[in-house]
């Protein structure tokens, strides 16, 4: 669905990607992680056709995004981290923008607006940042595009809205859709994503399904000094130590995405050896 081969991209002299390759399939929610300034937003913009590769190929839904063909634009939606909303009531936004998206479902949009508790009668200018963001997220979801890219979607959302967000995203995925979410709010997404992709210094550092991660790794609290010493990653927790170990017993543990991220950044070789074994 999204295929990136040997992507080279930079801003003027600043190189961001020097040969990045990545394949994203339909039917998955990808969590795109990486430290500040590593290029997550830049990657999403290359997928959306808002930035153009210097070298290499980006193919999304069989299109070259850089060409921005109408058939491509009507089947992809991006919720950027920073956005502008025209000062008009929600109904006008729908009236003037939804026709660009043939699969837009107004009933679905109205449901999200209600679930997110958006003050519908207000114009955009009268809404807070979080309320505007919820309008944009609701709109993007209701467009039912095959590709949905979201850059830090839970930033600015209150606690109830974050859990609402997880609920609606989980409910809208189907086998024809690919959702990519870039975030630092790992706790917001932990239970939602089914594939973890980490980029670092212009390359893919880690790319595994959550199923594979929990099959190969065990996340738990340990009091056993030997186990803690031999863990792939450990850090003190309120009781004992939070550890990641090889899953040799076929345990079913819940992935701790924050712990996994730290383990990959700080002890990547050990984690990699588990997946390459
Ligand atoms: N328009 C621009 N012109 C020049 N440099 C830019 C521009 N946009 C981003 N950059 C630089 O490119 C790098 C990647 O930026 P990008 O926003 O893609 O990172 P990110 O991983 O999304 O970061 P964050 O997690 O902080 O949102 C950064 O070093 C940034 O300073």
UniProtKB/TrEMBL annotation:
Domain of life assignment:
Bacteria
**InterPro entries, from UniProt?**
AAA+_ATPase (IPR003593), ABC_transporter-like_ATP-bd (IPR003439), P-loop_NTPase (IPR027417)
Question: Keyword ATP-binding: yes or no?
Answer: yes
A Gene Ontology molecular function term for this protein is:
ATP hydrolysis activity
SMART domains in UniProt = AAA
Q: Does the keyword Nucleotide-binding apply?
A: yes
| Name recorded for this polypeptide | ABC transporter ATP-binding protein
The organism of origin for this protein = Niastella populi
Lineage runs: Bacteria, Pseudomonadati, Bacteroidota, Chitinophagia, Chitinophagales
């Amino acid at each position: 669905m999204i295929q990136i081969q040997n992507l080279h991209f930079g801003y003027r002299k600043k190189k961001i990607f020097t040969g990045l390759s990545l394949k994203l399939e339909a039917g998955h929610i990808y969590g795109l992680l990486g430290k500040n300034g590593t290029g997550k937003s830049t990657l999403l913009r290359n997928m959306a056709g808002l930035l153009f590769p210097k070298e290499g190929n980006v193919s999304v839904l069989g299109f070259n995004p850089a060409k921005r063909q109408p058939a491509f634009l009507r089947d992809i939606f991006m919720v950027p981290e920073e956005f502008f909303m025209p000062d008009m009531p929600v109904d006008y936004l729908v009236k003037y923008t939804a026709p660009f998206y043939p699969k837009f479902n107004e009933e679905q949009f109205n449901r999200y607006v209600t679930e997110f508790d958006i003050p519908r009668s207000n114009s955009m200018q009268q809404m807070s940042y979080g309320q505007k963001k919820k309008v944009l997220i609701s709109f993007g979801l209701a467009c039912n595009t095959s590709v949905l890219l979201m850059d830090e979607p839970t930033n600015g959302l209150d606690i109830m809205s974050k859990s609402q967000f997880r609920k609606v995203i989980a409910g809208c995925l189907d086998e024809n859709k690919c959702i990519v979410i870039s975030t630092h709010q790992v706790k917001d997404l932990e239970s939602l994503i089914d594939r973890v992709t980490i980029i670092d210094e212009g390359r893919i550092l880690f790319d595994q399904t959550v199923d594979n991660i929990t099959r190969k790794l065990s996340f738990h609290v340990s009091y056993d000094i030997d186990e803690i010493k031999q863990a792939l990653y450990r850090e003190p927790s309120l009781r004992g130590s939070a550890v990641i170990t090889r899953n040799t017993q076929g345990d079913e543990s819940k992935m701790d995405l924050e712990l996994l991220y730290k383990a990959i950044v700080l002890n990547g070789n050990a984690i990699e050896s588990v997946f390459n074994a």
